[in-house]
Design goal:
Elements lengths: L2 E5 L4 H12 L3 E6 L19 E5 L5 H11 L3 E4 L6 H6 L1 H22 L4 E7 L21 H20 L3 E6 L2 E2 L8 H13 L6 E3 L5 E2 L2 E2 H12 L7 E3 L5 E2 H11 L8 E3 L17 H7 L7 H28 L1
Parallel strand pairs: 1-2, 1-4, 2-3, 4-5, 5-6, 6-11, 7-10, 8-13
Antiparallel strand pairs: 9-12
């Protein structure tokens, strides 16, 4: 049976990859960080799956990675783990470099020493382009604008270096923003769909946001996971951009979500300067023609389908919350 290891399996993209790899008949080993709180809700529905096993490990701890890779000798390794919040990385730059940057080197080293035929893919990021204007593709110059992006650039080049130095199958997927109902609650899209649905049901009156002028290229994380699988199983090792090719401002996203709920966002959205970043990435729009032409990838979701799915899911959560609150009042 083919096997794979996924770091960051409890995160958004890791959870979609886990479903995808299980559906393709892989034995999936998910790396879970030791924590006193439970944080596996995105994969809890797969808990009883006979081909899923969670193992303890940490991108900051070489020995755990080395023993997992040495024991499993997987066919594929997906590195989705990271300290992935751009704004947070300004507050903890050194930790971000350790986990998001050096973490890639730890996995590569563990593979080189214990299982050199394992194919490795790391989730690189459109944040690496930073201040380079759109459209961005595999040839665009990097100009990282945050400690997170700097760490991702380090991981990107480390991956290419291991490919060239040791002839390992080590590749980068350079994903632009990817969202879904499983998106972390502090990223802007999910913050907006949670806030707007709660406002619709009278559970909150205001939503505080930062810069609404920046522009992003948003895909669905399930489409991104499909692309990552195509990249790691391609005939030859290469790096690919994953993107929808559409660019929208944060304000457009906000306006669309609120108007789908028959709300005027201007009445509810407030500005909080604490949410601004010391350096902002103004505009990202990916050109993924290399991936589409060479590997036949095509996203299943449109921008509107993505938003509709996120609203529907958060509306269910808000409705449950309201029911509980209304019942509490009756008791
Ligand atoms: P990003 O995603 O930084 O692009 O990185 P995020 O959703 O955090 O920000 C997108 C844009 O929205 C603006 N913004 C806000 N952002 C957040 N989080 N919270 C707010 O209240 C808010 N108000 C406005 C931001 O300034 C920014 O311009 C994501 C992460 O998932 C990375 O890990 C990944 O590599 C890239 O996408 C591709």
């Amino acid at each position: 049976m083919k096997s794979c290891v996924i770091s960051g399996i409890s995160g958004q993209t890791g959870s979609y990859l886990c479903e995808l790899l299980l559906s393709k008949g892989y034995k999936v080993y998910g790396i879970k960080r030791r924590s006193s709180s439970i944080n596996t809700e995105r994969i809890d529905h797969l808990f009883d799956h006979p081909n899923l096993e969670l193992v303890y490990g940490d991108l900051a701890d070489y020995s755990s990675l080395s023993s997992i890779i040495g024991d499993v000798k997987p066919d594929l390794f997906f590195n989705c783990g990271a300290m992935s919040h751009v704004k947070v990385s300004f507050g903890i730059p050194e930790y971000t470099m350790d986990v998001t940057g050096t973490g890639v080197i730890r996995v590569l080293e563990a593979i080189r020493k214990n299982s050199p035929s394992t194919r490795f893919l790391t989730a690189s990021s459109s944040e690496m382009y930073g201040a380079s204007p759109p459209p961005q593709n595999e040839d665009t110059k990097f100009h990282p604008c945050s400690p997170y992006a700097v760490a991702k650039v380090a991981g990107y080049y480390a991956t290419i270096n291991y490919r060239e130095a040791y002839n390992m199958f080590a590749v980068n997927s350079v994903a632009f923003n990817h969202e879904s109902p499983r998106r972390g609650e502090t990223f802007v899209t999910r913050k907006v769909t949670i806030g707007a649905t709660r406002i619709k049901l009278g559970l909150q009156n205001e939503l505080y946001l930062g810069n609404l002028k920046s522009k992003r290229d948003w895909s669905h994380a399930a489409d991104t996971a499909e692309a990552m699988y195509k990249i790691i199983t391609a005939d030859s090792a290469d790096d690919y951009v994953i993107s929808s090719g559409e660019m929208h401002s944060i304000e457009e996203f906000v306006e669309k979500v609120f108007s789908k709920l028959d709300l005027d966002y201007k009445k509810y959205v407030k500005f909080d300067p604490r949410l601004l970043r010391p350096t902002e990435v103004d505009a990202l729009c990916g050109d993924s023609s290399k991936l589409r032409n060479a590997l036949g990838w095509k996203p299943k979701y449109t921008f509107d389908m993505l938003i509709d799915e996120m609203i529907e899911s958060d509306m269910k959560l808000a409705t449950n919350e309201k029911l509980i609150k209304d019942n509490e009042k009756k008791i």
